[in-house]
Amino acid sequence: MPMLSVILSGASTIDTVHVLSLHGLIPEVAASLMPLCEVFGSLMPTSNNISSTNDEPSIYMVFSSAFLFLLRLWKFYRPPIDQCLTGGGAIGSELTLEYLLLLRNGRIASHNYSAQDEFNSDQGQHEYASDKPEYVDFYPKLRAWYCQNKSCVASPLSGISTGNPVHEVANKILNMIYWKMTKSGSSSGNSSTATSNSLCGSPPSNAEDPYQRPMLPAWDVLEATPFVLEAILTACAHGRLSSRDLTTGLRDLIDFLPATLGTIVSYFAAEVTRGIWKPVPMNGTDWPSPAAILSAIDSEIKEILADAGVDIPCGSSGQSPPMLPLPMAVLVSLTITFKLNKSHEYIHAVVGPALENCSSGCPWPSIPIIGSLWAQKVRRWHHFIVVSCARSVLKRNKVAVAQLLRSCFSSFLGSLNDSTSLLSNQSSVSRLLGTVIAAPGVSPSLAPGFLYLRSCRTIVDIQYVNGVIIGLVTEYARELATRWTRMDSSRLKSSQASLSHAAAKAREVAVLGASLLCLSGGMNLIQELYLETIPTWLLSSKTEKLGEVSAVSRILEGYAMAYLLVMSGSASWGIGSTPPAWAMARRARVVGVHMDFLVRVLEGNISLGCHPATWKAYVSCVVGLVVSFAPAWIQVVKLETLRKLASGLRGWHESELALSLLERGGVAAMGSVAELLNVIS
Q: Can you list the GO cellular component terms from the UniProt entry (predicted)?
């Protein structure tokens, strides 16, 4: 057990987890932790190994290390964006154990399939446990807790009858907590030295009775913990339990079984979102006060956002004293009592993301309040905390997201307000992403692109980003054409090189838009772009909004949108004939549906809202790009769709493009190629 404890401690460090994530091994690590949790959580501890005050790791400590490590991978892991299978943002919502196991089992199946081609049957007879699929149902205790946790998050706890085993366990835990409160209160004046292994540094009792600690398997304790939390939180809300005693009780519970921190985090985060608890004053008497540096934190958040081009009200609203919902106040008051020892890094790796996620569900002033409390505790984390608070503004604020995206475009391409910068300035990646975050002793300053990269995967309404980027791409494309037509030199007006330069800048606009889309929502957002966003843009009327627009502007607008579509699809699922398995089927379906939409419009079955010049430029450019750079996309489109699309292009006198389209349709399209050649000749 000591060796296992050391391995878990080393594997759960922040640096190690980061390396594992870079190598894509998080699903495998999660699967290997599940049997450890199942076994050690089912063991009945004895009086000799239940305590964590000696140097020998207890059953509870080994279980807690494995359980919190698993919880951390499950709740806070950010997988590669191309592996995100759910909707609603880059990671959809919180990951699930099933999702991690799905990734792991998929890799195992792929590996076993490829191994059949490399090894003969004699060499492939050895089957290891790691080669078999893993499912949550294989671990009944873990599955029971997992289902209970999801139930507690989804709805408030329902009462349990007296005599129920869970009720009895909850009573034992409450008795332990209240007994320790009483003993700590009577001995607090006699001792100020914390035990070496206490997580929170709470003072020990001079005559603690080890038998006051219930002898229960860890899974039984975790099952009863939500009812314990409900009881003490309700008692505090009704004035029967002081805030200090509540925090002390939770610290004792975590010292008893550190794994209960996972349930505490989930329970309080769920209660915060329900909005049924009254706010409490963070006045320094009942609850810790952030007043000393709250105004400074507010001003630094505003400066970071202003430097990135975001100008929205985000102060602490002048509340005196600042207020937090009761569950949030309890959670932050509890976490700031944790010691910052290296040995407790596995605890802080859960606490940090949990606080950030939980605070985002509170009204806005909560985030700078929580940041101020932690900045007071750990001064060396000040810049990191301020940047995290600034990032959290973008999670739910659509206005801030729109302003930041506009700032990304203007920093890279030049401002629309500058009469010359769009065509004359060189696009700048350094302006977009910045070169330094903060010099020593200077407040942090983030470039708009860097701030967006750090924030985009937490934006709740990621579909909104799609519409904003589409609007910015079309706006910049129109403005580029307008600037070109307004140039003073008549020679430049008629110069092919000048218009080519404007078109090249439009391509840069599209590339930036495609990059931001892929980073924001991955394949899900690109699929929405193909199936909904661009069709809606083509079908909606823009005459009233735009007023008088030149023909060149309309053409360049369609040109930029075509590049945006093809570039984003290429980045998402590739242009080769053998894309990854997870991309092949989706690419075929999405591209096929979009091509069918183009055909229905060409046939007159759907009425356009955009200008005909925009439509013609868009279709011609999309087909031209796919023919030239992604011919593999054409091979999965239905032959009838290709024939109708080629017919529409020929009606626009684009016979060569129509012929190239059919030629890349494969053997099945050869007859159509011959027919078209006969018509052309």
A: mediator complex
